[in-house]
């Protein structure tokens, strides 16, 4: 809906310049500017909230917001009256003050291409306006409508001049009211932060994360992503640090500005550092941090190998360790498979030396594996024990011996084995040609 709908008079749209608050504030600003009031020695004593200059600065901030709204209303009034003459001018010139200057320059001129816009608009915009004016079917405005339009243009320019005057006054006084905050974000941004918060005391009580949203305007993106939206930065977007920071680091820079600005505002409200030294130190810290984030990572140097330790390690000994090592010892078959006899061909799993070799497990020529089984410790221990007990050897005769003998003549005969042993007790008597021997008759 158009703001000027139903209003035919400019005074019904713009009433701020006639208000008592506007007149009194401008008079105080002009008086303070003429007297050069606000030096450092006048603001170092007493509480900041009780300082009349501080109260005047708060009034100026509130008046600046009203002036901006008033300029928008006057701009809508000018567009509504001048659309009959040049309907496409609003889309070509977006700024309200530039629009008012162009309308005042054109007036009721029939051939707009002959109007000189040098100094009012950039050269590219001048060309677009000239081309659009030559094709747009504009109408001549009546004298009363043209006079109201020119008056609205003068009103908008006067409000803009008042806005600049107030900004200059606030900027000059911020160096003394909030020197540390001004050293970080600048006088203009510091004044806007204090004005939006409603005073330095309210700014101090705000969390640093909320300072980033001061001055932020919500953008209508029609469903598109807000990843690249700049509306969340607020007034910090106008600072020098933010503008000189690469886009990838601006979110981090905005967080640092908000944190340091909150600290600087607490220092300013106590007036513990009127020279602004702490604010400049905070600013240097932010710049160093941003510069540090832009540096490339250090080149990875080759890491030398550690010096080898030639000292022998302490090894555990004892029965438990020996038992543990016996688990991983190779078996007898494995030891034979890892050995080879000299001069004997080794048998293999695939033959002709192919596959896995059997070593000493194989015997050349028979195609069979042969393992030489050694006497076990248990068998040796049993044999030794049997020998000690004289089982089957020496002493008493064994119960398995028999006195029966098988002969080819008599068959079975009873003989004395001991007598035969005594007769054949060695020497030549035990040989074939013994003296006791006789011929047998068959």
UniProtKB/TrEMBL annotation:
It comes from Papaver somniferum. The keyword Cell cycle does not apply. Residues 298-319 are annotated as: Disordered. One of its GO terms (molecular function) is RNA binding. Residues 177-295 form the Nop domain. One of its GO terms (biological process) is spliceosomal tri-snRNP complex assembly. The keyword Nucleus applies. InterPro entries: Nop_C, Nop_dom, Nop_dom_sf, NOSIC, Prp31, Prp31_C. Keywords: mRNA processing, mRNA splicing, Nucleus, Ribonucleoprotein, RNA-binding, Spliceosome. Belongs to the PRP31 family. PANTHER family: PRE-MRNA SPLICING FACTOR PRP31, U4_U6 SMALL NUCLEAR RIBONUCLEOPROTEIN PRP31. It holds the Pfam family Nop. It is found in: Nucleus. The lineage of its organism: Eukaryota, Viridiplantae, Streptophyta, Embryophyta, Tracheophyta. One of its GO terms (cellular component) is precatalytic spliceosome. This is Nop domain-containing protein.
